[in-house]
Amino acid sequence: MKKGLFIVVDSGEGAGKTSQLNRAKETYGDSLVLTREPGGSPYAEEIRALILKSPNASQADAKTLFALFWAARADHLKNTVLPALKAGKTVITDRFDSSTFAYQIIAQGATELKDFFWQMRDFYLGDLKPDLYIYFDIDPVVGLARKHKQGGEELNHFEARQIDFHNRLREGFKEFIAHVPHEVIDASQPMEKVWEDFHAVLEKSFAK
Length: 208
Ligand code: Z5A
Prior knowledge:
The protein has one domain: Rossmann fold. The chain is 55% helix and 13% strand. It is built from eight helices and five strands, in the order βαβααβααβααβα. It has helices spanning 17-28, 42-52, 62-86, 97-107, 114-125, 140-150, 163-177, 191-207; strands at residues 6-11, 32-36, 90-94, 132-137, 182-186. Strands 2-3-1-4-5 form a five-stranded parallel β-sheet, sandwiched between helices. It binds ligand Z5A. Ligand Z5A binds at residues 13-19, 36-38, 69, 94-95, 99-100, 103-104, 146, 150, 156, 158-159, 190-191, 194.
């Protein structure tokens, strides 16, 4: 595997990222560091709990969440991503700034933050911009149905929002990836076929 690549996997709800990332880890072992946002480092995981689990979280507006996600990201980059890249590992993060753009700016409707987003991105990421974004695309109706079928934990306050929110989210991801190196995976396919496509994209990036 090529050393030191920084890759983002992102999507709306129920696209199956977690299942596919676990499979990538089984395939590539210790040469691959899997991480996630929000979270991925001890302090950022505390911010994750605040964002997703606090009883007041669902009333936090886009401006509040925008700042929290960037704060968590700064810690994640410094304490997890950068050390792993320096050690020659490939890092794949489950969600990154693509989610901030799609969820906060487009789906939550804070479009006044759009220019600021790109400035923040330059400021916080600097030379640490991901080599590739892999977007798992799925019709929100299908993705949310998977989440409902999954059972287990209650839906979080993002998953529980109306379908309009999730449709805007999909548009947000499409707008974001047009600005960055990316590949799109059709996540509505059966799991095995999604893996085949995802694996092929990873192999292509490692071969470059
Ligand atoms: N967020 C934000 O607003 N701004 C930001 O900047 C960032 C994040 C970084 C974190 O959620 C939330 O934070 C997220 C965005 C917001 N919104 N939400 N929710 P999270 O980390 O707790 O969870 P997630 O990333 O959304 O989802 P997940 O649990 O990892 O789900 P998934 O990616 O869809 O993966 P899954 O568990 O593999 O699949 C879901 C179900 O579908 C499961 O039952 C599978 O068996 C099934 N599945 C998977 N693939 C298939 C196929 N191909 N066919 C049929 N069924 C399938």
